[in-house]
Amino acid sequence: MRILDTLGFGKIALTANPTRTLLILLAMSIGVASVIILTSLGEGARKYVSAQFETLGSELLFILPGKRETTGGLPPLLGTSPKDLTIEDALSLKRSRAIAYVAPVILGAAPVSFASREREVVIFGSSSDLKAALDLPMAAGHFLPDDDPRNAASICVIGNKLKKELFDNKKAIGEWLRIGERRFRVIGELSAKGQSVGMDLSDTAIIPVASAEILFNKASLSRMIVKARGKESLDKAEADILRTIKQRHDGDEDITILRQDSLLQTFDGVLQTLTWALAGIAAISLIVAGILIMNVMLVSVSQRKSEIGLLKALGAPTRQVLTLFLSEALMLSIAGGIIGVFIGLAGAKMIAYFIPNFPVQTPLWAIAASLIVTIITGLIFGSIPASKAAKLNPVLALSDK
After folding, report:
1. Closest by CA position to 308, among listed 317, 291, 330
2. Less packed terminus of the chain by CB within 10 Å, N or C?
3. What does the pLDDT look like over 221-242, one tens digit per residue?
4. For residue 29, which of 262, 285, 386 has the smallest C-alpha distance?
């Protein structure tokens, strides 16, 4: 039997029971669409995180107190080390020619109030270098002045969200806020920028780092944010930081330096693994669809015994009968896979339309892999009923016993 005859035979068999065929196509297409949509979300998450890091630039280094090896785990973000990081440490790093900006940072939480409104927010104690290091855009006013960070001025810069919560549409510049037990005059308002350095800067207040020391009664920094003069200066900047801190801390290398490019690679690897995991979970539905093909075709074999018996009585070899049933499974798998690809791509487009800020992107490997898995699944599970049909005795099949 020629290939066209085999395909024509399979087409007739599939169209003879449209409900059964549609159920199988639906199962296969849902499985393929699930793989494409979930991998698109995983790939989109990876692109989104990469874009967030790139908005900060790739020249950032984060200096945390404490050496990773001293605890056997991650360095403490807000903890102490054998020698605390100080404002003087930050000032000493600015002597390096490889470093453009050094922003000392003290983090804490405190109530911020204006008139009868009050909110508990994160307070970010830093210096004028923070704006340049993180490229913070201003909506109104100006940032912390470029003076000695050891001066405890009663001024603050507030985020866009905090401004709306406390002032609504009123002007905030020049007004006095109460942060904890101290009063601060608003000199600037940040533009809405979203997430940055692991926190929402739109819902925070930034005050001079020396004022934060007084507010939270601490003399140690939570971290330092350093911006190198360029990507080519990252290694030199890291070496200068380690050497300077070691000199100032009596020979102890008691800090941990996190490079933004390393953080990006770590997140990229984690999210890539997540994408593969999502694809694997969605691929389970393809196996379920393959089982459905097997069950439906087993029923089909029992219903078409007379047809199979007639074919074998007319001289059709066992291999030919096997090919006929496998061709049906293959046609169902390919058709279901193609339909699923279109449904999955349409679903990804809809997600991108309703969430425009999320970069939904369908990887080509997901489309190819889902189609290949669909075909393989259909052939594997279709081979069982096909083998059963091929082994039928023609006499018994014609007598339908």
Report:
1. 317
2. C
3. 999 999 998 888 888 998 999 9
4. 285
